[in-house]
Amino acid sequence: MTKKNKNVKKRVTFSDDTTITTHHTHKKKDLDYDRPPVYIRKTITTVPFHLLALLYYYIKVSNNYDTLRLLLTLIPLQIAYLIFQFNRCTIYGNKRLKINIPLLLITIGGSVLLSVPAMVIIILFGAPFVEHIFQTWLLALHASFLAYPALYSVFNCDFKVGLWKKYFIAIMIGGWISCVVIPLDWDREWQVWPIPVVVGIYLGAFVGYSITAYI
Amino acid sequence: MLKRLIVPLLLQLVGVFVFLSGFFPQKNVLSGDASFTIETKIQENTKPPFDKLVLVVIDALRSDFLYNEVNSGFSFVHSKINSGEGWGYTAYSNPPTVTLPRLKGITTGSTPSFLDAILNVAEDDSSSNIKDQDSWPRQFHNHGFKLRFFGDDTWLKLLPNDIFDKYEGTNSFFVSDFEQVDLNVTRNIPEQLNESKEWDVLILHYLGLDHIGHKGGSNSTFMPAKHREMDGVIERLYNNMKDDTLMIIMGDHGMNDVGNHGGSSAGETSAGLVFLSKKLAGYDRPIAQKNVKVPMTLDDPSTFQYLTSIQQMDLVPTISSLFNVPIPKNSVGVLIPEFIQLLNKKVANIKIMENYKQLLDVAKEIDVQNYLSEFKVSKKIDTSIIINKMKGIQQDLIRNATDYNYDNISVGYGVLLIATIIAIICAIKIMHFGPPFALTMAISILLGLSCFGSSFIEEEHQLWWWIITALVVFGYIHSTIIGNRKFKLYFIVFVCLRLIRGWNNTGQQTTYSYVISNILEAKSSLLWALNIWTVFILCMRGFKKNPTSFISSFTLGMMVLTYKMNWSIVNKESVPEYLHEIVRKYCEIYTGTHNDSVFEDALIPMATLFFQSISSICFIKIMAVMLKMQKSDTLLNDMSKYITLLLIFLSSSSNIPQFLIFEILRYCIIKIVQDQYDSSIYIVSLISLILQNFTFFQFGGTNSIATIDLVNAYHGISENYNIYVIGGLMVMANFAPAIYWTMLAWGILYKSVKSKTDTFVKCKIPYVLFNCIVGCSLLAACIALRYHLFIWSVFSPKLCYYAGWTLFMNVIVGCLLEGFLVSLV
């Protein structure tokens, strides 16, 4: 009995910082948990304010929730965020890393590829399979480009550091929570697939990039 | 130990049922027959505008079937509406949109009580009839009209049969019968047309269109032909009518796009209503009908509001006035304004005031005298003002259709609160504070809170899905943390769950056309291959340990399969040709005949044989264990196999392959639970609880009366049926997947004989806790929202489902059946 309870307890306590099904393809080996040599500096610089701005644009400014245009704006901003904010706060073996331009480009390709398993996950989580397939793919692309800085760091650390999966999990949790509004019968135009989940993963990513250094 | 389970369980049951008795009281009705009250002499001596009435009720005739450009095949009705001889309306039929309560509304003009919807199922129940209530057929009969009735026998159950001169009932025994049920009505028409001098009112009620809807949805391929058939009937009757005859064509309710009804969606509540008479052409047609040609299209077809929208009850005072009989006492209808011009000038105002006074009587307001004196002085009234006043009263009356019994409600709620407190204390004592307790509480509170939102009740399956996805991912993460990674198992579980989710349309908001059951129905050879595999795999379960039980379950399995195939053939579902031949051979051997009706003839004997075999096998098995002739360790496994076969027997053929997925899922879950959680009792019962609810919805169940599966309640039932047998089969058929997942625990727990009572109580305590907390919250929601718009359409059905879950799933299956079997182990 007690042993069982212990096991279950673990599940709740550590649930936020472990591997997640999305990214098993990228991590062949299990990862160690030591904080050094990689960690994120605890500063306000890591807060991705551009995500809030993008959300404001998406909800208030853009014409009828233009998910595609949002994606096209997201990509350069995420690259800029990685170069000027995220990478500068990443400490690897007691030093800051210089930005690696070829890897930056490879990661863009990596994100696009990542959208395929992300889409599988989204469909497993209950997205419609036949209808709205393009919208689902757009959502998957959003998710993978929100994970872009984390993915770059995964590549940069030769797949060896377990820290980055927290970011993927944060994005997933954001998306999961946002699903609550879908069944409501308010008939608002923002309840159309995949708008609530797009907003959810942006907020999830915002929280994830802001607080992961502290947990 | 057992006490801790039984006390909260019993208290909960008592609380819920006392509450229900207060929440759904029998409605108070005014007794006696109405008579004219104002200017009695003038009214009695006027000649009514019409002297003959032909009422054609077409079951589930939704408004767009009559008026829509794409759907409607009623070309004759269209031509009459366009020429002004027909006045078309969209009649709002108050939920519950089921035939029996709707017929009550159409005849007495009253709003049905929610209880009627339940009693519609138990048609034999005599408490739902209106033999003592005032209704227009009764008034017509009392005033010397001769009535004849042909069609759905619900009318004959509702009304005293002696008011009809001649009648013949048809029943909707086989929902898959589209033709015969209507031909049985139509064949009476020639005779009635010949004898038209001998009747004054002819009522016909056609069921075929409703059957087509239930079977194939509102866009079924059988619809256009049925529309034309009905249109032909109408044309034939109309062309043989005199000028003084009024013909009414109406639906008792509508249907949603899947073809179900009972709820309150726009499609279900929007019934068509057309008045046809040559006389009407001489009067001003309704405003909405001017400058409009039918068939038409709406800007927003999902509203179904074609032409003028009225309440269906408005029909009652309208025909009463048109035929100069008193308005039935309990009617809450308001005279349709356009028909006032047809009334004799002298009585028009009197009729309006009569209607007004009658409404006030229902509303129990007496200050009508004031207004009457005013009316007498002026002799001139402003019709539109009074009609508007009446509409206001009508709205109030519809909203406050029932009086709640607050004593019972508060006592019931109090008892349930006590039960909940006891349940929480017992749960803490037994489960201690720990993750299983926290998880049970979290799920219960989440579901409890969701009861306050009508859309969360309508879409409850989404909540369960939301919980399940989170738990599967957490389970996987947990398995990696404890270093026992099971990616494959979890992936299979997730895929299985996703397949189950995609199987049927559920919930009340959206319908997808690409659901797996639809695809399988179109590809019948794949469906039947899967069905055969399902039964085979199920019989193979536990083959290594106990090969003898394979023989009995395999025999039963074959019986199930042949019966289901035969049933599908009889119901004109598509079945592969080679199976067709096999089943024909089987049926020929079975019945010993070779005629065309061999499939139908074999159906009931086959089902009877199956029921007899399964009960005798279960009986022998239990007796063998009781008399210690056989070891008890295989009892639970064998029983769960037999029960699953029974559940397959009671499921529709496109749902049977879900049991195959269930078997795979069950295998994976047992493996995960044993490896990762060391067969923890609470984990098992939580998984079982979640899957019970999840699969219940994915089988097509919802929290609405509309989706109660009646088709599968009639297996092996002959025409002179027993209502309790049907009731029992109906509950089993509707809870089939939930019963399957209750049995999950049987295969994992109860291995050691020593602590089986402890195990049993520990296994059941999460259910009791869950039901108590959700119950408290749901009952609170019902009390707080008792004047809410959705109380009858959303909250009350949920309350009934909750009672069903508590009584049937939790007490009968979960505790009594399981307790009995466990005591034998």
UniProtKB/TrEMBL annotation, chain A:
Transmembrane regions: 38-59, 71-91, 103-127, 133-155, 167-186, 192-214
Subcellular location field: Endoplasmic reticulum membrane
Matches recorded under InterPro entries: GPI_biosynthesis_protein_Pig-F
GO cellular component: endoplasmic reticulum membrane
Keywords: Endoplasmic reticulum, GPI-anchor biosynthesis, Membrane, Transmembrane, Transmembrane helix
Major location category of this protein: endoplasmic reticulum
Pathway assigned in UniProt: Glycolipid biosynthesis; glycosylphosphatidylinositol-anchor biosynthesis
One Pfam short name: PIG-F
Its membrane topology: Multi-pass membrane protein
Coiled-coil spans in chain: none
Source organism, top-level taxon: Eukaryota
Gene Ontology biological process: GPI anchor biosynthetic process
Family under the similarity heading: Belongs to the PIGF family.
Record-given protein name: Glycosylphosphatidylinositol anchor biosynthesis protein 11
Organism: Maudiozyma barnettii
TrEMBL record, chain B:
Keyword Iron-sulfur carried by entry: no
One record GO biological process: GPI anchor biosynthetic process
Keywords annotated in UniProt: Endoplasmic reticulum, Glycoprotein, GPI-anchor biosynthesis, Membrane, Transferase, Transmembrane, Transmembrane helix
Keyword Amino-acid biosynthesis: no
Location of the GPI ethanolamine phosphate transferase 2 C-terminal domain: 401-823
Superkingdom field: Eukaryota
Regions crossing the membrane: 411-430, 437-457, 463-482, 526-543, 550-570, 602-622, 681-700, 721-748, 768-787, 799-822
Localisation per UniProt entry: Endoplasmic reticulum membrane
Gene Ontology CC annotations of this record: endoplasmic reticulum membrane
Membrane topology: Multi-pass membrane protein
MF annotations from Gene Ontology: CP2 mannose-ethanolamine phosphotransferase activity
Entry's family note: Belongs to the PIGG/PIGN/PIGO family. PIGG subfamily.
Cited function: Ethanolamine phosphate transferase involved in glycosylphosphatidylinositol-anchor biosynthesis. Transfers ethanolamine phosphate to the GPI second mannose.
Protein name: GPI ethanolamine phosphate transferase 2
Organism expressing this protein natively: Maudiozyma barnettii
